[in-house]
Amino acid sequence: MTATNVHRFTSRKSRPCPMCKKPSTEAFHPFCTKRCADVDLGKWLGGNYAIPAVEPADDFGSEAAKLAENENWQSNDSS
Ligand SMILES: [Zn+2]
């Protein structure tokens, strides 16, 4: 039968929880519990990840302001 094959496949697929190194569960893969999954999510939301998401938008805004300033100068000059 293929029972041994199935067992090998599943045991190879499950990796330890990256948070606490306990065996991960199917429900919260790759974590062991919802708590560990939430801790990892909090790291992404509250950590450095939020900063680079804001910076490009700010840079783009100042770039547009420069362009608007340039147009003002040109129209001033022609009149
Ligand atoms: Zn864990």
Describe this structure in words.
The protein has 79 residues and is mainly alpha-helical. The chain has one domain: Erythroid Transcription Factor GATA-1, Chain A. Helix content is 67%, strand content 0%. The chain is rod-shaped and about 75 Å long. It starts with a helix and ends with a helix. Zinc ion binds at residues 17, 19-20, 22, 31-33, 36.
Contiguous helical run count:
3
Stated plainly, the CATH topology is called Erythroid Transcription Factor GATA-1, Chain A
Strand coverage percent: under 5%
Bound molecules: zinc ion
Order of helices and strands: HHH
Provide the low-confidence segments as ranges.
none
Total beta strands:
0
Q: What would you call the shape?
A: rod-shaped
CATH class placement: Alpha Beta
CATH architecture level-2 label: 2-Layer Sandwich
* Helix residue percentage: 55-70%
The averaged pLDDT comes out at 73
Number of domains: 1
Main sheet makeup: none
Task: Outline the secondary-structure elements.
Layout lengths: L2 H11 L20 H13 L3 H29 L1
The structure holds zinc ion (ZN).
Zinc ion (ZN) binds next to loops.
Offer a few descriptive terms:
single chain; 79 residues; mainly alpha; Erythroid Transcription Factor GATA-1, Chain A; 0% strand; binds zinc ion
